[in-house]
Amino acid sequence: MDIIEHDRLLIIDFGSQVTQLIARRLREQNVFCEILPYQIVTDDVLAEMAPKAVILSGGPDSVTREGSPRAPESLWTMGIPVLGICYGQQVMMEQLGGKVLGGKNTGGGGTAEFGRAYVTPTEERIDLLAGWFLGEKEQAWMSHGDHVAKLAPGFKVYGTSPNAPFAVTADLERNFYAVQFHPEVHHTPNGPTLFENFVRLAGFTGDWTMEAYKDIAIEKIREQVGDKQVICALSGGVDSSVAAALLHEAVGDQLTCVFVDHGLLRLNEADEVVAMFRDHMNLKVIHADEVDLFLGELEGQSDPETKRKIIGRLFIDVFQKYANEIEGAEFLAQGTLYPDVIESVSFSGGPSVTIKSHHNVGGLPEKMGLKLVEPLRELFKDEVRALGHELGLPSSFIGRHPFPGPGLAIRCPGEITREKLEILRKADAVYIDQIRRHGLYDEIWQAFVAILPVRTVGVMGDGRTYDFACALRAVTSVDGMTADYYPFSHEFLGETATRIINEVPGINRVTYDITSKPPGTIEWE
């Protein structure tokens, strides 16, 4: 299926950490959309894309700064609906003749807002806000230092907040809409309704589905790969498994999966993964036993970024080794998802801030001689699972909790040793077994044990112990960008701690991590 058949909505990315959440809201409305960084959206690019509507994202810059990002001037004369969000609102005002002032540190008068705020309506209601203000006010998430001080000609105010007198503005004649808050985040509960209203106003029919995405992705893979051979980095997790199934449907026997056993896997995972793909799905799978290589290079390393970089480098080295044995191999496929990308570098090269590096993001060194195929790069985890269903993967496999590419290395803060990994595998197996026994597995986004780099004193029987402490982690989430800890009962936690201490030699203390994301991340490193 050709993507040109779908009406397209363009999201111009000004560097917000949550730009991709805008795309999520649109996909929930079955609207095909693309995100491009503002740097490459020229007048010519805009004309060639011919989008049916445009959304301007938030961003970390200030429109009051000389040389700050702008939208193409031709956008304002295309006659299509435009929605500006936060920085996008400020860009719209500044380019169309309004005025934006800096925050209190730059003479703006102290109108910054960060966090929860409440928007109240003006007397005149507009279609963009249909379904809003059923009560006196709507909760919205604000994150701005600058603020609009003067509206551009043609705009009127339709919603205000305590520190944003122009929280919702619009020029109805030109179909230009702008909001100071972030309707894409979950902290704006009625945000999806606003997006639903916008795409309806723009005339979208909602004809884009995961089935359509599958067809598009297959065509893109075939166009990129041609008749060349592809190596797929298969970890056995949901992401790489769906990527492998998608690639196999696209190029068939041109695909060879390489499963790297790096010694950082969960209990019995290597055997289960190889059996699943080689024996049941009939894919070509190379089982690469590289335990000694990885653990040898990680020995003595405790810095999390150093560990990630070592693992990333070794993955590349291992795939290069096996690529040399496969005649005609020119591509390396990975199951990279958007949360990986957004935490490493802004989507499509945009200007957002790096959070942490990921082993499978950033391309490959030129010396490797392989080109990268990342067919899931624009998707969130729940979308990957939906794609897996479209590809016919079993639900039991698609529903597995996420497992990081660096494996247990990032669940073992401090130095990695074989002893600690063995303790960690056993503790994690007990924990997951407990979750399954209590029927909680499908309620939880991700659960795991982290072994802590401290030993604690304990008493077992009549003897003193001096063993490791561990932390249990379980979170609920929709897309991996934000997460809350799972509210286990004290009975469950007590029972689980008792089992781990009794069944896993080397652990004498169990804790439960109740940190949300943000401020923490889901993984410990």
UniProtKB/TrEMBL annotation:
<dbReference type="InterPro" id="IPR017926">
    <property type="entry name" value="GATASE"/>
</dbReference>
<dbReference type="Pfam" id="PF03054">
    <property type="entry name" value="tRNA_Me_trans"/>
</dbReference>
<keyword id="KW-0436">Ligase</keyword>
<dbReference type="GO" id="GO:0005524">
    <property type="term" value="F:ATP binding"/>
</dbReference>
<keyword id="KW-0315">Glutamine amidotransferase</keyword>
<dbReference type="InterPro" id="IPR004739">
    <property type="entry name" value="GMP_synth_GATase"/>
</dbReference>
<comment type="pathway">
    <text>Purine metabolism; GMP biosynthesis; GMP from XMP (L-Gln route): step 1/1.</text>
</comment>
<dbReference type="InterPro" id="IPR014729">
    <property type="entry name" value="Rossmann-like_a/b/a_fold"/>
</dbReference>
<dbReference type="GO" id="GO:0005829">
    <property type="term" value="C:cytosol"/>
</dbReference>
<protein>
    <recommendedName>
        <fullName>GMP synthase [glutamine-hydrolyzing]</fullName>
        <ecNumber>6.3.5.2</ecNumber>
    </recommendedName>
</protein>
<dbReference type="InterPro" id="IPR029062">
    <property type="entry name" value="Class_I_gatase-like"/>
</dbReference>
<feature type="active site">
    <location>
        <position position="184"/>
    </location>
</feature>
<dbReference type="InterPro" id="IPR022955">
    <property type="entry name" value="GMP_synthase"/>
</dbReference>
<dbReference type="GO" id="GO:0003921">
    <property type="term" value="F:GMP synthase activity"/>
</dbReference>
<dbReference type="Pfam" id="PF00117">
    <property type="entry name" value="GATase"/>
</dbReference>
<keyword id="KW-0658">Purine biosynthesis</keyword>
<feature type="domain" description="GMPS ATP-PPase">
    <location>
        <begin position="208"/>
        <end position="400"/>
    </location>
</feature>
<keyword id="KW-0067">ATP-binding</keyword>
<keyword id="KW-0332">GMP biosynthesis</keyword>
<feature type="binding site">
    <location>
        <begin position="235"/>
        <end position="241"/>
    </location>
    <ligand>
        <name>ATP</name>
    </ligand>
</feature>
<comment type="function">
    <text>Catalyzes the synthesis of GMP from XMP.</text>
</comment>
<keyword id="KW-0547">Nucleotide-binding</keyword>
<dbReference type="InterPro" id="IPR001674">
    <property type="entry name" value="GMP_synth_C"/>
</dbReference>
<comment type="subunit">
    <text>Homodimer.</text>
</comment>
<feature type="active site" description="Nucleophile">
    <location>
        <position position="86"/>
    </location>
</feature>
<dbReference type="InterPro" id="IPR025777">
    <property type="entry name" value="GMPS_ATP_PPase_dom"/>
</dbReference>
<feature type="active site">
    <location>
        <position position="182"/>
    </location>
</feature>
<dbReference type="Pfam" id="PF00958">
    <property type="entry name" value="GMP_synt_C"/>
</dbReference>
